[in-house]
Specification:
Number of helices: 17
Strand content: 5-15%
Mean pLDDT: 96
Order of helices and strands: HEHHHEEHHHEHEHHHEHHEHEHEHEEH
Distance between the termini: 45 Å
Low-confidence stretches: none
Radius of gyration: 20 Å
């Protein structure tokens, strides 16, 4: 059955955020919840199999070789963090799993610096176990390799750079391995790395990522919605001092982000990540923003990462070429394109307790309303505060 074999089998931005949380918010607590967007039906006993896989994660620990690789690739992170990570162990008691009929409920609670690592591996386990217990037959290994090779060779002809962002909703660890190995083998000059730190080490490529929506969601809970983007980016810059300079723009809609992305931050950050809404509209807005700030858009980069396939990437490339820097992160189209229905699931932070304060609801207001998450009353309040009109 599905199981993780490395503590680094996780997305890079989980570790970079964990380091920042340890430094800045060590007393903060967080709650996360599984959201079954695709309305997938889970067979009887699925909760027990997931519990077994999660309990087994308590045995994972950072090896000396992993510690060396991670430290060498991240000289901007203090050595004390890698010592901390070497002593870190997953605590399965932080996770509650309940199954009612074919409905699955998963909740996570604990100190934020600890629970931040659960989201991605739990999602990947849910996906892999789902395909296993429902006994769905995927394409052969040979076909998976052929498809991945064809994709990267087509992307090569676009003269772009592209990374694998597919850990969380991959078909399986084995498919993920096959894909990254193939992209590395045939994608020289185009394939630049993977968000998965374990596979980056295994295939000697670059781990890629910065921060996720929860970073700004926490800042909204602690400092208020109007200060979330500004202080989130300020604190990120305080920790990383110019490294990991791609800013996520759509936690409270891109329009709100641009109001707070002042000239200092616009100059400081290398670029932005697009994760929802129309990519061409977004590119137009960010190009206009840079021009209005007196900055050459070609000196900055957009990382596109929202549901990409070849046609979408080619369309974006055609528009951005000669106007602004651009790169791409492809997720399930790399790691779960195996002839089966892809899973549509997420795990999101739902509440946080900054320092010794009360538990506070957190939300996300995406550029794509279907991606909004959180308590409806809090979403309504945030829209009023941020003057977002539907």
């Amino acid at each position: 059955m599905a199981q993780l074999t490395s503590i680094l089998d996780n997305d890079f931005y989980k570790f970079t955020m964990q380091y920042a949380v340890v430094k800045l918010f060590p007393k903060a607590k967080a709650r996360y919840q599984f959201i079954n967007r695709g309305q997938h039906k889970y067979p009887s006993g699925f909760d027990q199999k997931l519990r077994e896989a999660i309990d087994a994660m308590a045995k994972l620990k950072l090896t000396k070789a992993e510690k060396t690789f991670f430290a060498q690739n991240c000289p901007y992170i203090d050595p004390t963090y890698f010592d901390f990570l070497q002593g870190y162990r997953y605590d399965p008691e932080e996770i509650t799993i309940i199954q009612n009929g074919d409905d699955l409920e998963v909740k996570i609670e604990g100190y934020w610096y600890r629970t931040i690592l659960w989201e991605v591996p739990v999602m990947s386990l849910i996906c892999e176990l789902y395909y296993e217990v429902t006994e769905q037959e995927r394409l052969s290994d040979e076909q998976v390799i052929t498809d991945a090779r064809n994709k990267i060779e087509k992307y090569k002809k676009l003269a772009i750079t592209i990374a694998d962002f597919g850990t969380r909703r991959r078909h399986s660890y084995h498919v993920h391995q096959l894909v990254v190995e193939t992209l590395k083998k045939y994608g020289a000059g185009t394939f630049i790395g993977t968000s998965n730190v374990h596979l980056a080490m295994q295939y000697q490529t670059k781990p890629i990522g910065t921060h996720a929506h929860e970073w700004f969601m926490f800042h909204a809970a602690k400092y208020g919605f109007k200060m979330a983007n500004l202080l989130g980016l300020e604190h990120w810059a305080d920790v990383y001092r110019g490294d990991l300079g791609i800013a996520l723009s759509d936690t409270y809609t891109t329009e709100v982000f641009f109001r707070q992305f002042d000239k200092k931050l616009t100059k400081l950050f290398d670029g932005v990540r697009h994760d929802s809404g129309d990519p061409i509209e977004f590119a137009e807005k960010i190009i206009s923003h840079y021009v209005n700030k007196g900055i050459d858009p070609l000196s900055k980069t957009i990382i596109f990462s929202d549901g990409l396939d070849y046609e979408k990437v080619a369309h974006i490339t055609q528009y951005c070429k000669g106007k602004i820097g651009y790169s791409f992160g492809v997720g399930t189209n790399f790691t779960n394109d195996v002839g089966l229905k892809q899973m549509n699931i997420v795990i999101k932070m739902t509440e946080t307790q900054p320092e010794d304060d009360e538990w506070t609801q957190v939300i996300k207001l995406s550029d794509e309303p279907k991606k909004n998450t959180g308590d409806p009353a809090t979403i309504k309040l945030a829209k009023q505060i941020l003057m977002i009109h539907d």
